[in-house]
Amino acid sequence: MADNDRESRSIEIWEGIRERLRADVGEVVYGPWLEPLTFVESRGGVVRLALPSRFRREWVADTYGAHILALWREEDDDITEVEIVVRPQSRPTPKDGRQKDNREPTEAKDARVVDRAQEDRRGTAAIKSACVTDRGTKQPNLNPVREQLGKVGVWSRSPYFYEAEKATSLAVAAEELGYRALWIPGFDGGHIFERCELALKASTRLTIATGVVNIWRHDPAEVAQTVNKLRAASGGRFLLGIGGSHKFLIGDAYDEISPLAKMGSYLDELDAAGLPAEDRLLGALGPRMLALCAERTAGTHPCFIPPEFTGAAREVLGDGPLLVPEVTVILESDPGVARALARKFAGLYFKGPNYANMLRRFGFTDDDFHGEGSDRLIDAVVAWGDPETIAARVRAHLDAGADHVAIQSRGPKPEADVWRELAPRVLG
Q: Which stretch of DSSP H or E encloses residue 281?
């Protein structure tokens, strides 16, 4: 078969495979993850497809690479490999099957630039709408929540781990400093809601949010009842964040159901108990969990992430859902001291494979996870330095698409003192 004929046949096969993939996985997954795949070439038994970011490429290759190869071999058994590469400007294959300026000839430059801009706008619109398809016209208006949270809040583990008075004193401090939200983690269950209630009673304007409640440790019907009670008593100043936890906390029961299925079931029960989707967030790191956030919650509250993840998550979520990452900060300019402090707690995150898998999608390798973590890895997920350096890292997440950033201070300095030093730079 002549090269031109093979290329045309490959494009025709690809269009058929795209439709089969759409039917196989559904629009919620297909739209943000598989629709941006573009055909590059078919040569020497290898089909090359392209995606616009490494984050997408890693997940699609791992999750659907073998399936795409199997579908292709049904049509052409000469194909032995499907390779997915990163091309930031990749565009959908034209519906008529012709490769329009695919090889970018010089004489077609002006037409290519115009065509690419049009295609990019259409592709971006498709990505932004795909994950909220099932909501349709019922998609909630979350702008009031954005206004309520503000751009920067604070995140503290102290109200959970220490005496109850911490919930009161830190809520008062955060509000007096001008922060609009205080996030309190739920870790292994227990008194998280009682501590949130104390923080709500100690403040008048501050939003109290959970970052996050462990769904293995709290009955969903009771959670829904408690959340509705706290929201009613505080004038809507409470926001529920939930998460799927980790095996090192849950034990062998964690392996009996997939995290995605567990979370889906939990959301079903929250629905049945009358908790609106717009009153809850979901801690999500993987692409499928992010898609679930966009479909069934107000958005996501991820932790221990680099700014690159924030940008990729915004692509998946689209414009509507909330994206409110936690960012760990250490107010220390000495690299050795700052990294040593970071390594004291970073290992906890490395125990959860979901964090390691997420970071690998952004180019980190086994070498980075060896021992207590490489400098490169620590620097990517922990913001350390002087107040201006930390403020720049917070801005990096906001510029990447975050609606709100929750600052968690670690290190020897009292949290409230760090919040005070950072406030002029992050709240201005």
A: strand 280-282
**Residue 111: pLDDT above 90?**
no
Tracing tokens 């000839």 back to the chain, one arrives at 105
Task: Give the start-end residues of each E strand in 62-155.
Answer: 81-86, 152-155
| Residue 216: pLDDT over 60 | yes
Cis link prior to 212 (omega < 30° from 0)?
yes
The pTM of this model reads: 0.74
The alpha carbon of residue 209 and the mean position of all alpha carbons in its chain are separated, in whole angstroms, by: 18
pLDDT in tens, 193-203: 999 999 999 99
Parallel/antiparallel/unpaired status of strands 326-330 and 382-384: parallel
**CA–CA gap between residue 309 and residue 349 (Å, rounded):** 16
User: Tens of pLDDT along 4-35?
Assistant: 777 888 999 999 999 999 888 776 567 767 88
- Report the chain's C-alpha Rg in angstroms: 23
Q: What is the pLDDT of residues 348-369, one digit of tens each?
A: 888 778 899 899 988 899 999 9
User: What does the buried/exposed string (b/e) look like for 290-321 if buried means 16 or more CB atoms within 10 Å of the residue's CB?
Assistant: bbbbbbbbbbbbbbbbbbbbbbbbbbbbbebb
Give 329's contacts (C-beta < 8 A, 6+ positions apart): 382, 383, 384, 390, 393, 407, 408, 409, 410, 418, 422
- Chain-centroid distance, C-alpha 204: 30
**CA-CA distance, 97 to 34, in Å (whole number)?**
18
What stretches of 132-191 show up as alpha helix (H) in DSSP? 143-149, 158-161, 165-177
Number of H helices, E strands in the chain: 19, 14
What is the structure's pLDDT at 353? 85
